[in-house]
Amino acid sequence: MSTNGKKKEGPSELDIFRDFLKRHGMRYTPERETIIKEIFATHEHFDVDSLYISMRQKGLRVSKASIYRLIPLLIQANLIEEVFFEKGQMHYEHTYGHEHHCHLRCQQCSKIEEFSDHRMAQIEEELTKRFNYKILRHRLEVIGLCSDCQKKAQAES
After folding, report:
1. Which of 83, 98, 113 is the last residue of a domain?
2. 126 and 69: one domain?
3. Rounded CA separation 82/65 (Å)
4. 1 with 67, same domain?
5. In terms of C-beta distances under 8 Å and separation of at least 24 residues, what long-range contacts does 83-91 make, across chains too?
6. What is the pLDDT of residues 26-73, one digit of tens each?
7. Are 53 and 124 part of one and the same domain?
8. What confidence tier does 2 reach under pLDDT thresholds 50, 70, 90?
9. What is the pTM of this model?
10. Considering its fold, how many domains does the chain have in total?
11. Residues 137 and 110 in one domain
12. What value does the mean pLDDT take over residues 78-85?
């Protein structure tokens, strides 16, 4: 994760999730723990297929169905969030303990730049007043062409 996504201190992701499951009357299982540990072991965006393949290559025995069932619970627990949809797959990133940030995504090569901008708080405040909304969070993705892809396109034309 970029410097904009620095990890903050606090209870572990596993502790947060155990508490979430307890409050909702659900079981904490070894398989769920294995998946959560794998998700939080990396600071990259991920999709279910890439996570599943990575886990299988490491010899971790989990089912893809278990990952699909776990993802909505992790979102509800505010540990991860949906980031973008690409090539038929939703991509996620873990957000618990990390500063909020937005994304620039290259349409050509899928490169992602993460950024923060203090003006987003101002925009949220203006929208709150204008529409009488209580804004809980926002997700901003700007799609364009990175400098490398722009150079490549210019060289080809």
Report:
1. 98
2. no
3. 18
4. yes
5. 83/45, 83/139, 83/141, 84/45, 84/141, 86/110, 89/47, 89/48, 89/49, 90/47, 90/48, 91/45, 91/46, 91/47
6. 999 999 999 999 999 988 889 999 999 999 999 998 999 999 999 999
7. no
8. very low
9. 0.75
10. 2
11. yes
12. 88
